[in-house]
Write a structure and sequence with these properties.
Layout lengths: L8 E2 L2 E2 L29 H16 L5 H14 L15 E4 L5 E4 L20 H7 L3 H5 L2 H10 L3 H8 L2 H15 L5 H6 L1 H11 L1 H4 L32 H8 L7 H22 L2
Antiparallel strand pairs: 1-2, 3-4
Helix pairs in contact: 5-9, 7-11, 7-12, 9-12
Length: 280
């Protein structure tokens, strides 16, 4: 399970823009394109418990095709639940990987514990080729410096996976920070200044605890395989300004002027805190 540097390739396939986002370090990785958050309860405690159970069960499994396929079927049956996106697959082979099982990843990967270099990903829903060559819209479309910043700003897989796939939200927030600072963000400087990196991470984590999410359609998951270039959900206003992009990315419910004003104030408060931390 590769913890790649900022550049290079994935399984021999060049990474768009040269910045790899899937596996970052022993604590930070993303399983969103495998449907990690496409569950009824996408809270961190619920996901950690689910992944831990799977990982323990899989560790006892004979590495034989029939046993692995049966594991997938049994896992889907036991964990069966309504999905926010019913047509978006949730892979039963997501688990916790690394020496301390400290990040999310693929239990079928050749470098995963117990697989002895054998690649079992062909037994997954989308097959091994999709796992080898698919890159999410954020990897393909975000500027390189924004992708490098994402790799620096988080210390856990849960928050990172929630945010890294939100390319509209990430681009809007980081561009606004740069506008306020009057200069581009420098990933190299953030490596040397962890408090500033953490401040950006706190801003981007607005995805996790946004208080104005729509009660019926606002949830933590979205379908990564729908890359139509648009955004989701009405925002309550029409102008495509910075706030609107953020509101739409967060699937906000802003049906009154008071609620809209409160949402703008919340975004501005979080933005100002990040800008203060980054200002000379």
């Amino acid at each position: 399970m590769r913890s790649a540097g900022a550049g290079g390739s994935q399984n021999g396939v060049p990474v768009p823009g040269g910045v790899y986002l899937c596996q970052v370090n022993e604590m930070v990785s993303c399983g969103a394109c495998c449907g990690l958050y496409n569950v009824a309860d996408a809270s961190r405690p619920a996901l950690e418990a689910m992944l831990a159970r799977r990982t323990t069960r899989f560790s006892r499994l004979p590495r034989q095709m029939e046993a692995i396929l049966a594991f997938g079927e049994q896992t889907a049956a036991v964990e069966g639940q309504p999905r926010p996106y019913p047509d978006f697959h949730h892979c039963p082979y997501l688990g916790l990987i690394g020496e301390g099982r400290t990040r999310v990843g693929c239990l079928l990967h050749p470098l995963a514990a117990g697989n002895q270099g054998v690649d079992f990903r062909g037994l997954s829903e989308y097959g091994g080729m999709a796992c080898r060559i698919y890159f999410c819209p954020s990897t393909r479309r975000l500027p390189g410096r924004y992708k490098a910043i994402l790799r620096i700003c988080f210390d856990n897989w849960y928050d990172y996976g929630l945010v890294v796939t939100e390319r509209h939200l990430v681009a809007a927030l980081l561009a606004e920070v740069e506008r306020c600072l009057g200069q581009p963000l420098d990933p190299g400087a953030l490596v040397r200044r962890p408090a500033q990196a953490a401040a950006l991470g706190a801003l981007l984590a607005i995805k996790r605890d946004w208080p104005f999410r729509h009660p019926s359609t606002g949830h933590l998951c979205h379908d990564l395989f729908r890359d139509d270039g648009g955004q989701r959900g009405p925002a309550g206003i029409e102008a495509q300004d910075f706030h609107t992009i953020v509101f739409r990315a967060l699937e906000s419910h802003l049906e009154t002027a008071e609620r809209l004003a409160a949402a703008r104030a919340e975004v501005d408060r979080r933005l100002a805190a990040a800008v203060r931390a980054l200002s000379p």
